[in-house]
Amino acid sequence: MKVTVSGYYGFGNTGDEAIALAITRELRKYGAAPLLLSNTPEDTARTYDCDSEARMQPAALLGALLRSQVVLSGGGGLLQDRTSARNLTYYLGVIRLAKLLRRRVVVFNQSIGPLTPEGGRRVARALRGVPVIVRDRGSLDTLEALGIRAELGGDPALLLAPTPGLTRDPRRVIVAPRGDVIDATEALKDVVRRLRAEERHVTALSFMPDHDDQAAHSLGADEVLSTRDPQVALDAIAQSGYVIGVRLHAVILAAASSTPFSGVAYDPKVQGFCDDAGAPAHPTRLDAAQLTDEVLTRRLPDWTAIEDMRLRAAQSFSRALNR
Known about the structure:
By secondary structure, this protein is an alpha/beta fold. The protein has helices spanning 14-29, 41-48, 58-66, 85-100, 117-126, 137-145, 182-197, 209-218, 230-238, 248-256, 268-277, 288-296, 303-320, and strands at residues 2-9, 33-38, 51-54, 70-73, 76-79, 104-112, 132-134, 151-152, 172-176, 201-206, 223-226, 242-245, 261-264, 281-282. Strand 2 (33-38), helix 2 and strand 3 form a beta-alpha-beta unit. The longest helix is centred in the C-terminal third of the chain and has 18 residues, at 303-320. The protein is globular and about 60 Å long. It comes from Deinococcus grandis.
């Protein structure tokens, strides 16, 4: 069975590449052959040892869908028009084309929104009759308001595992900023200063080097790790005692590696994940003293809830493939 996967792949975003890594691994467990739609299909094919086609080339996109029996739209936060209406148009267009070709199409472990009223109407029309699996409860509520029924799954990156044999340093703290969330970056400088005064070793982790490196270097951390490789990011997190994440997948990979974390909710998807995981989430204009205290006391999430999320993520593949 060939499965085409539509998402934000091939753009050098470690979080989305973590999703790609998890999806390709899990699909193979079901005997399915993944085909990723990518901005850089040659690199994607080489990285994940799978078929890949150019996401924006109409002939390549059509060919991918024609060769597939199932189309997964996701994971990630694709169905939103906060970034731009053009992104929403693209992802809904892939869904509509797959439906037109009578392929089984599933909205797969996405966060839904934020959506303008017009964007909400477009999503409701496009998803009529489409199986929908979302990764957080907030997205269930968003779709319910649009009259769309959905099931709760989990982010596929929760299924990734650190390299065996790593040693955790409880005094190491990972801070993962996002380059365009300037108020959070400014507040995190104070947090880093406080943590270093308490003799914590702080690593600034850049999840999207072209986008986040400047913010990471500005924090005043002991070191900066810049990577596009999700396994490198996961292993760094697994060797730390706590994670502060503006980037969503910093906190998701923390959960995957049993590392306590606090989120900075620049977007509802960060708030949604932290709420579901029983972990603290802060506004971008955060209280540095409060966040520092969470790190120093190693405030724990709800590990049982996280295990439930991981289980739902695993089970979502059989539901999506109708197995």
